[in-house]
DNA sequence: GAACCTGATTAACCTATGTGAATCGGTCTT
DNA sequence: AAGACCGATTCACATAGGTTAATCAGGTTC
């Protein structure tokens, strides 16, 4: 039977050992499911949070703005992610979470979460681990944005999304939906929209990747991951 | 009386509420103090860790390398930081920690740390919070490296170091030691050595900042923090 | 089905930053 | 004190990627 938090269970299982009793505890969490349209904010920079959210279906993006209005997308969050789990201990958030596509989320009150974690120290460790994996991705992205070419960054992003979606069982083929615009890609990779377009065309004409109207198809995984210097170790997946 | 872990106590107090019983527990942790020369590695990418380290004195840097050998410095860690606390739950580290200057560190076994945290859930939360603050810095740096000009990034780095050193009581004036080379700065900010040099000169001739032979002096804090778009909120300091 | 959007694409041009290489100035070594 | 380094600095030149703006294509609205 499909329950909303199934995706969270799958996500946690992908990064660590999830005991049956933990699974039970998670399923007993009171949640409130809600629906976001593209562009809606789930969390806004500066807000003081009393709850956090699980992506049930769709895609959220975490981003931050400079004074001049330019936007850096920090991460994409497909189903299973808890993109604002940090708010449990950093109540005032310093980023904005918006829906990249129409998205369903489940919100969990911090107090309920905390009660559960106090009861299960091992589960605390697993959630802690989740925030650490989240942080580990930033290390890699900082390196890429600071040092890698536009082509390498673009390649890496698609490799990462593929691997993450596969690890939680959302997809099982090299062709998968990734409903972002070229402008989103540009803002995520720290490049201009025009250059994002140029870069995608280079990858396409090199026969590595096709991306059009929200659909990605990886044509040559070995060469794409080579170009993107993609080594999945930083995702700290459990099954390896 | 000066004890090695005093700096850790000060650091934790700077980001949250540290109860007296926690302080006692921390002071009872068995530690092994050791000395690093400039360039020595405390932790190497790929290592499986059974312990983590506290910087007692000096400066460590966390960095990662690309295949072509280029290096991205991800963060600097002055006294009080536990730069590899993540290893508690991500045993295999995906970065290297090296001494930027001669540095004293104290190592703590994971098992001792874990025993302490199991006994004090509130302290677990505080250490968890520390790793989250660490991660929050990366969000900001990703935005800066992706979107900000070389000048803004350089300005921001000095603002951050000043604020962090001040918050743990290591310094109390706008003139402070920051023993890095221009090459370190370049690798931290994702720019070439030559451009780091140019940028420092611009900041100097604008009367904002002097940096020479490991000594920084902020001449005009209002304008420097304005230029660097520095808002200390992302450091999540307790006293605000 | 005309007007409108939003996102993709192209072109022409511009600039911030990178590269390579030479010079300079301390400081450590022998 | 003569090398030998390492880091800082300068210069000349190269280029990845940014900017602006125009056009195109598909979908939506009334």
TrEMBL record, chains A, B:
<protein>
    <submittedName>
        <fullName>Crp/Fnr family transcriptional regulator</fullName>
    </submittedName>
</protein>
<dbReference type="Pfam" id="PF13545">
    <property type="entry name" value="HTH_Crp_2"/>
</dbReference>
<keyword id="KW-0238">DNA-binding</keyword>
<dbReference type="InterPro" id="IPR018490">
    <property type="entry name" value="cNMP-bd_dom_sf"/>
</dbReference>
<dbReference type="InterPro" id="IPR036390">
    <property type="entry name" value="WH_DNA-bd_sf"/>
</dbReference>
<dbReference type="GO" id="GO:0003677">
    <property type="term" value="F:DNA binding"/>
</dbReference>
<dbReference type="InterPro" id="IPR014710">
    <property type="entry name" value="RmlC-like_jellyroll"/>
</dbReference>
<dbReference type="GO" id="GO:0006355">
    <property type="term" value="P:regulation of DNA-templated transcription"/>
</dbReference>
<feature type="domain" description="HTH crp-type">
    <location>
        <begin position="148"/>
        <end position="222"/>
    </location>
</feature>
<dbReference type="InterPro" id="IPR012318">
    <property type="entry name" value="HTH_CRP"/>
</dbReference>
<keyword id="KW-0805">Transcription regulation</keyword>
<keyword id="KW-0804">Transcription</keyword>
<dbReference type="InterPro" id="IPR036388">
    <property type="entry name" value="WH-like_DNA-bd_sf"/>
</dbReference>
<dbReference type="Pfam" id="PF00027">
    <property type="entry name" value="cNMP_binding"/>
</dbReference>
<dbReference type="InterPro" id="IPR000595">
    <property type="entry name" value="cNMP-bd_dom"/>
</dbReference>
């Amino acid at each position: 039977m499909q329950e909303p938090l199934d995706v969270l269970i799958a996500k946690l299982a992908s990064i660590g050992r999830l005991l049956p009793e933990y699974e039970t505890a998670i399923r007993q969490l009171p949640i409130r499911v809600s629906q976001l349209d593209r562009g809606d904010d789930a969390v806004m920079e500066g807000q003081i949070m009393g709850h956090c959210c699980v992506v049930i279906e769709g895609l959220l993006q975490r981003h931050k703005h400079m004074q001049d209005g330019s936007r850096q997308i920090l991460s994409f969050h497909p189903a299973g992610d808890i993109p604002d789990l940090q708010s449990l201990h950093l109540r005032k958030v310093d980023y904005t979470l918006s829906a990249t596509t129409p998205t369903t989320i489940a919100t969990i009150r911090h107090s309920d979460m905390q009660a559960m974690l106090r009861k299960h120290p091992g589960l605390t460790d697993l959630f802690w681990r989740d925030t650490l994996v989240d942080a580990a991705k930033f290390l890699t992205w900082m390196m890429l944005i600071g040092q890698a070419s536009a082509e390498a960054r673009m390649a890496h992003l698609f490799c990462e999304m593929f691997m993450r979606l596969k690890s939680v069982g959302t997809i099982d083929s090299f062709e998968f939906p990734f409903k972002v615009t070229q402008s989103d890609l540009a803002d995520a990779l720290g490049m201009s929209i025009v250059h994002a377009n140029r870069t995608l065309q280079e990858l396409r004409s090199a026969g590595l990747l096709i991306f059009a109207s929200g659909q990605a198809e990886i044509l040559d995984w070995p060469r794409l991951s080579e170009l993107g210097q993609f080594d999945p170790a930083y995702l700290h997946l459990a099954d390896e």
